[in-house]
Amino acid sequence: MTSGITFGNISTIGNLILAPMDGLSDQPFRFICKKMRSSITYTEFINVLDVPKSLNYIDKRTCFSEFERPIGFQLYGNDPKRILMAAQILSEKKPDFFDINLGCSAKRVAGRGAGAGLLKKPDSVKEIITLLVRNIKIPITAKIRLGWDQENLNYSELSRIIEGSGAAMIAVHGRTRDQKWNDSANWDPIREIKNTVKIPVIGNGDVSSQKDINNMLKQTGCDGVMIGRAAIGNPWIFSGKCKSSLSKKQIIDVINTHWFLMLAFYGPKKTSSFFKKHLKAYLSCSQFSHIDLKKLISLPNSMKTPLFYVE
Fold it and tell me: Residue 58 pLDDT more than 80?
């Protein structure tokens, strides 16, 4: 059994965490990963501008079950007062903590000074965290990258600011804003941050196996490991199981559970579209190597019909 994480008034069982991923870490998938023993739940990121008028499916993004606790709502924006207002409104839904996204590299987010765009504005980061800590009763955490680019690696400064402003935990993705996914993550700064701050540090980046999990913990000394893309199609990574050791039936059982959860959550039309990215990942393994993923036929839309069949 892995050790837990304590941040603020929250203590977890286990130290493996599903990363917040826009369009992927929705309530059905979070539930699946929690069943596999993911220890902390994060929502998909929430644009604070959408919160006052409940735009862009805010109710879906903030929907969670008690089973998912502890759960954090991840917020992004560039205006400290708007971020505080959103947190105050969303506090009524009783999340366990709020997480501030300081790492999203998407142009539509970082380009307007939110997400990773805030990496260039340490004073704004300090103002955001301080304002939230003073006015919100639950823990405030943050997720960062190493800096805007290789010429502006300010992770040490940012980490000290985040801790000094009262945040309870920090998650660190081992890339800069301008690095692509095929660029290797750098774990050394995660170790530096762990040696600098006293609050828990979560490591993230290029973790796709149990070996990677163990190496991350050993090399960085971090308190927990956050797993993103590698969990798509492989939620078993949180339970310490190797997907290649599972039977077809074990995999199909989880696929069908995930399918029915999405049908109940989204309805047939959206599920048929949204689930295909999960399905391709589930089937991308040796147990289904005989299947041509390009020939997946239409998915059923009945709540009583088990998943798809393939040609």
Answer: yes
Write down the pLDDT at residue 301.
Answer: 55
Q: Which of 164, 168, 105 is nearest to 136 (CA)?
A: 168
Q: Do residues 32 and 257 touch, judged by C-beta distance below 8 A? A: yes
CA distance 299 to 308: 5
**In-domain check, residue 304:** no
Give the pLDDT of residue 244: 92
| 104 noted as active-site residue | yes
User: What is 19-31 written as a DSSP string?
Assistant: PP-TTTS-HHHHH
Q: Domain total for the chain?
A: 2
Are 123 and 117 in contact by the 8 Å Cβ rule? The answer is no
Strands 10-11 vs 16-18: parallel, antiparallel or unpaired: unpaired
Read off the CATH number of the domain in which 179 is found.
Answer: 3.20.20.70
What is the Cα Rg of the chain in Å? 19
DSSP-derived letter for residue 240 is: T
Amino acid at 282: Y
State percent of the chain over pLDDT 90: 81
pLDDT band (50, 70, 90) for residue 2: low
Residue 305, in any domain of the structure: no
Domain range for 197 is 6-239
Active-site position among 104, 222, 242, 285 = 104
Residues 141 and 53 occupy one common structural domain: yes
Quick check: 48 and 83 in contact, CB under 8 A?
yes
Query: Is 1 part of a structural domain of the chain?
Result: no
Q: Kindly state the helix (H) or strand (E) to which residue 132 belongs, with its residue range.
A: helix 122-135
Chain-centroid distance of CA 79 in Å reads: 22
Over 90: is that where the pLDDT of 272 sits?
A: no
Residues 204 and 148 in one domain: yes
Residue 71 φ then ψ, to 5°: -125, 135
**Beta strand 71-76 pairing with 97-102:** parallel
Q: Do 229 and 256 sit in the same domain of this protein?
A: no
Higher pLDDT, 181 or 149: 149
CA atoms within 13 A on the CB side of 42: 26
If you ran DSSP here, which 8-state letter would residue 38 be given? -
